[in-house]
Design a protein that fits this description.
Blueprint lengths: L1 E3 H9 L10 E4 L6 E2 L4 E4 L8 H11 L4 H8 L4 H10 L4 H14 L14 E2 L13 E3 L4 E3 L22 H13 L4 H22 L6 H12 L9 H11 L17 E2 L5 E3 L4 H16 L8 H15 L6 H15 L11 H6 L2 H16 L3 E4 L4 E5 L4 H4 L4 H39 L4 H13 L6 H6 L5 H14 L12
Parallel strand pairs: 2-4, 5-7
Antiparallel strand pairs: 1-2, 3-4, 6-7, 8-9, 10-11
């Protein structure tokens, strides 16, 4: 087996990077490029100079832009080799891209003696990648820098991960119209409160936590503040972290200053977030990305996914990262002005119904990046012997995350919001009917409606015993009303909550 491009660089330079999904290899069985599920095959005679620079050029030409591998390779690639290759081919497209990347990623200058004169070439081909809204031209190498971020934080997203129909803007417009269809102002406010409460409970339930009523209310108020600040900062995030953590002992005054990790029930580490020594740099890059006004990332869906998942992968706090990660979905959405009037898309409520898929998305990043660490399990904490640095976290491919978030938001808009509004309408209708017939405390009627609804319109014997002072006909009438009010008009389907 003979590797090419990125796989060759990983093998020959012993790079500590995440494994390639599809390494490029030479095969005697093909006479052209063939993409298989697990490899990209090239014929034996494919043009490539068998040097680090040669394989880097090959990779940029045939395999796209993998910033993690490129950045790692530059630690082993002498700058003089890049300069020599540029001098031999000053108008070469991919050596110009390589030289630009070296300066962009290292923050240093190459001592070149030639002046490329070819037309500007895109750093990220726009047909393949989601790119910056306002690219900047580098005159030295005649490269158009259209990266989504900065060297401190620059996720990569394949254009194929962004569905075209319905577009993200169409989905959010539909959410707006659905909520605006609630014509009664009082019902509208209750509907919004209902959605906020549902999102809050779901976000905590994902963390397997049952919050107190006070903490639940604080998170509701936090959600209502989404989009209020024009600038995300460490101080602002600290204030949010203090509002969502379990207790005062978990509150923090800054980004973490020690290494954290996640582990399973056996004590096996399942995730190491970015090394603490690199956290400040990575978070500064993340903040720049989130605070950007569209010059870097104009696509709202991509920005939301990269901001939210980038945050949880960096894991800047010891506690509260998961809830803040989901809060940031709402913050970036609201700040984009694509949702107005305090409206909310209950994405956590949908994620809660798709936990295995959600966990697999998170594991798609955490599994390979955690394997880059070496540690010895201590009595209380792991003793880390080898750390991979921050590049895997700063340059992650967010295509999977973008596609997942689109599906969750689409389900929230097309199914969850209508279902929750229908449930609220059914509840109000049932309560109104029963209040007009029975002189009972509203809280008791409300409880009985919820009990009957949760049992598909039936009050169990145990539930009836709880309200033993009520005659049987009252129970029977409550069941009848609930069954009528919570059956949809379309085929008599039961309205779930």
């Amino acid at each position: 087996m003979a590797y090419l491009g990125y796989a060759w660089l990983i093998e020959q330079l012993s790079l500590r990077v995440c494994p390639l999904a599809k390494p490029a290899e030479i095969s005697t069985s093909v006479n052209r490029r063939v993409d298989t599920p697990h490899r990209v095959l090239f014929p034996r005679g494919v043009a490539v100079e068998d040097t680090p620079v040669g394989h880097l050029e090959f990779a940029l030409r045939h395999e796209g832009v993998n910033l993690e591998i490129v950045d790692a390779a530059f630690e082993h690639l002498p700058p003089a080799d890049l300069c020599a290759r540029l001098e031999a081919a000053p108008n070469g497209v991919h050596i110009r891209r390589a030289c630009f990347l070296w300066e962009w990623l290292t923050g240093k200058e190459l001592p070149i003696t030639v002046t490329p004169a070819g037309g500007y070439v895109e750093l990220f081909p726009t047909g393949t990648y989601v790119t910056a809204g306002v690219p900047t031209n580098n005159r030295k190498f005649r490269v158009r820098n259209n990266a989504l971020g900065t060297p401190d934080f620059c996720p990569v997203v394949l254009r194929s991960a962004v569905p075209e129909s319905p577009s993200f803007s169409e989905l959010l417009a539909k959410a707006q119209r659905t909520l605006e269809s609630v014509s009664d102002p009082a019902l509208y406010e209750r509907a919004l409160s209902f959605l906020y409460l549902s999102e809050t409970r779901s976000s905590f339930e994902i963390e397997r936590e049952k919050p107190s009523s006070d903490k639940q209310e604080r998170f509701v108020q936090l959600l209502r503040r989404a989009g209020e600040t024009t600038s995300v900062s460490e101080d602002w995030l600290v204030s949010l972290q203090n509002a969502v953590v379990r207790d005062v002992f978990s509150q923090e005054a800054s980004y973490r200053v020690q290494q954290n990790w996640l582990e399973d029930a056996t004590g096996r580490v399942t995730f190491f977030p970015v090394p603490v020594a690199d956290l400040q740099r990575a978070m500064a890059g993340w903040e720049t990305f989130v605070n950007d006004n569209g010059a870097l990332c104009p696509d709202v869906l991509v920005k939301v996914a990269c901001a939210a998942f980038g945050f949880v992968y960096l894991h800047p706090f010891m506690d509260g990262n998961g809830r803040l990660h989901r809060f940031l979905i709402h913050h970036v959405l609201t700040h984009s002005d694509m949702l107005t009037g305090g409206r909310i898309v209950p994405v956590s409520a949908v994620i809660l119904k798709h936990i295995p898929e959600y966990l697999e998305v998170l594991a798609g990043f955490s599994r390979p990046v955690t394997r880059l660490w070496e540690y010895v399990r201590g009595e209380m904490t792991p003793h880390i012997t080898v750390s991979p640095g921050s590049r895997a976290y700063r340059f992650f491919d967010a295509s999977r995350e973008v596609a997942f978030l689109y599906r969750m938001i689409r389900l929230a808009v097309e199914e969850e919001i209508p279902r929750e509004l229908a449930w609220l309408s059914g509840f109000d209708q049932a309560l109104g009917l029963l209040e007009s017939e029975f002189d009972l405390p509203q809280k008791d009627l409300a409880a009985l409606i919820r009990m009957a609804h949760s049992n598909h319109g039936q009050l169990s014997a145990n539930r009836r015993k709880q309200f033993s002072y009520l005659p049987v006909p009252v129970f029977d009438r409550i069941e009848s009303v609930v069954q009528a009010c919570f059956n949809s008009q379309e085929g008599g389907r039961w309205i779930e909550n």
